[in-house]
Design goal:
By secondary structure, the chain is an alpha+beta fold. Helix content is about 30%, strand content about 30%. Strand 2 and strand 3 form a beta hairpin.
């Protein structure tokens, strides 16, 4: 009986090792298919590869004439004023034309050279200008 126990132990260990080798790849495939239930469970690669959607600037020649959903906040210096259109140079040197009207919230009227911070619509209308 002692010889039987000595033969069973290696066979049992071998069987256990084979089962573990067969099951491990199957479990790995299943774990790749599952999606995490929390956003904090995302891997660093998933987070780094996500790029927020960015919209294009409004088409030239078309602008909004009334307040609407804010598209972006623009900061810079007033370079030119023509009627209700302000040309603002942002801090990177880009020039943007924004339009003001009765719907624009202003603390005081701006003049050329004033620093501004404006919340504008996609069509270039300034919802507010400070």
């Amino acid at each position: 009986m002692d010889k039987t126990h000595k033969k069973v132990l290696p066979i049992l260990l071998s069987t256990l090792a084979i089962v573990a080798l067969v099951i491990t790849p199957a479990l790995a495939k299943d774990s790749l298919k599952k999606t995490p239930s929390h956003s904090s469970a995302k891997t660093a690669a998933e987070t780094a590869s996500h790029v927020p959607e960015q919209r294009d600037a409004p088409a030239a020649g078309h602008h909004d004439e009334k307040p609407g959903p804010a598209w972006m906040t623009l900061g810079g210096t007033v370079k030119k004023i023509e009627g209700n259109a302000y040309t603002v140079e942002d801090y990177e040197g880009n020039r943007v034309k924004l339009y003001v009207g009765q719907g624009t919230k202003q603390l005081k009227h701006k003049k050329v050279g004033d620093p501004v911070r404006a919340e504008i619509t996609r069509g270039g209308f300034a919802n507010s200008i400070q």
